[in-house]
Amino acid sequence: MTGLRQTRSVGKQKRRIPAEETPRPATAEEFGDALLAAAYETARGVRGAAGKSANRLAPDLELPAEAAEGARRAGRQLIARACRGGWLPEDLDQAARRRVDEFARSFVLDTLAAYSEPSASDQLDEVGAVRWWAESEPHLPQWAAKHILTPAEALTSVIEALGFLTTLPPLGSAPPRRPLHHGVDEKKLSRVRALLAKAESSSFPDEAEALSAKAQELMTRYAFDRVLVEAGEAAPDAPASRRIWLDTPYVDAKSLLVHVVAKANRCRAVFDARWDFVTVVGDEDDLAAVALLTTSLLVQATRAMIADPAGRDRAFRKSFLVSYATRVGERLEKAAAATLTAAADPDRLLPVLASHELRVNAAFTTLFPQVVGKSVTVRSDEGWHAGRSAADRARLSGKP
Hints:
61% of the residues lie in helices and 8% in strands. It is mainly alpha-helical. Strands 3-5-4 form a three-stranded antiparallel β-sheet.
């Protein structure tokens, strides 16, 4: 029954104690336990659990010091578990944006900033997780004042943030890494970014898609040069992993586009439908290429889909995106094959690429020993043909 907590013996009978009669915590440890208990109720979907618990724990206009310390301990415990489970700062931020409001997200980022080592400062800065508060005073009262929240409102957001953190499943860590012998070539990536920026800003579909094709060609040629250099090294870099988050709607169709771009760039990809992200496994340079090209193609595909006069319903738009991804994948594969044929030493390159593929597959299997294939349903012939036509204009196998 909602609102009822523990039981106690009264003679031979038992009486349920309503939540409002539950003794108020007196220590930081008890406050932390109470916040975690409310967080788990919130995560299970118990309506009003966060607000009711917060009103009981902070009924006055002053926030108890023990509550602030309890919140710090509970937050640190759950953030530590998430980080051990493979959640990076960007992942936590992206997931929080999708599951909780701005106040709970802010508390998650502050807790992350307080927990993380200084070595992770670059990743923290990217998501806005910084230690802005005075370290000499408890964080929670300063955070509540910053957001103009009453103690009960502040604890409600804390409980919702903790509830969100309890739902995060282990994602697994990246494969063991050796020291990098080289970094991503920023000069070459800048050329690719410039081509894709022009493609995204162009109002002419043929020009936009030809610029994307040129960007893919440059990335493929650069990758072939790189693997030949690495072939002579005693210990080539181990594959890494990266998560690409997708915005609703049609995330399953969009994940297909990530998959085909990853495949064309010598990577493996798997979609997590629970959290709307795709994990891509491959070399660092290839992962950067996948992220760049995927982002640009999603922009272009969405623009073409919306511009189509027939694209008014969900069935059309999802079918459009699935068809677009399928056709783009075919053309990317053809472009990669053409680049291989035109390479200066294809006979030497083929066994090197085969060895690279084995390393990527081994790393992927280590991270994801069990992967289930899933189909995407297409319910609009009109959307399918429109998407294929839009992808055909890309001319991905040729030069602009």
